[in-house]
Amino acid sequence: MKQILSIAGRPGLYKLVNQGKNMLIVEQLLTGKRTAAYARDKVSSLSDISIYTVEDDKPLPEVFQAVKELNDGKTVDINSIGDLREYFAKVLPEFDNERVHTSDIKKLLSWYNLLVEAGEADFVEEADEETAE
After folding, report:
1. I need a surface site. Which of 16, 73, 118, 133 has the fewest CB within 10 A?
2. Are 43 and 10 in contact (CB under 8 A)?
């Protein structure tokens, strides 16, 4: 998950390929098209993103793992879900209803679908699981 990136203003997710001087070489997950992300671009690793909960923040890879378990590893049909908030409450019951917007949930689920389609469905590394125990 540390190598999977979101770049503000660009659709989709990217995989870090290499670093250059003042830029990153990234590859779009689904198309494999390589491009550069410069220092002025807002780049976020998915492992650095978290979701607000009532008590603490929940790392995004753990939320993806919960979605995966709820859907048996299959993609989520966002359009057929009547109420995204109700669905997300099944995934993460303790999410902060005031600070997590519906657009955040929709983006999270679309990222989840992209990762599953790209074969990047190992959300929680085994070392992280052992530490959690």
Report:
1. 133
2. no
Query: In the block, which residue shows the tokens 């679309």?
Result: 110
Q: Which residue in 127, 117, 118 sits closest to 47, CA to CA?
A: 127
Cβ-proximal residues to 26 (8 Å cutoff; 6+ apart), any chain: 5, 7, 14, 15, 16, 17, 34, 35, 36, 37
Mean pLDDT of 21-50: 94
Question: 37: Cβ–Cβ under 8 A, 6 or more apart, which residues?
Answer: 5, 7, 14, 23, 24, 25, 26, 43
115 within 8 A of 13, measured Cβ to Cβ = yes
| pLDDT tens digits for range 88-131 | 999 999 999 999 999 999 999 999 999 999 998 888 775 444 44
100: which 2 tokens?
């997590």
**Residue labelled with tokens 């085994």:** 126
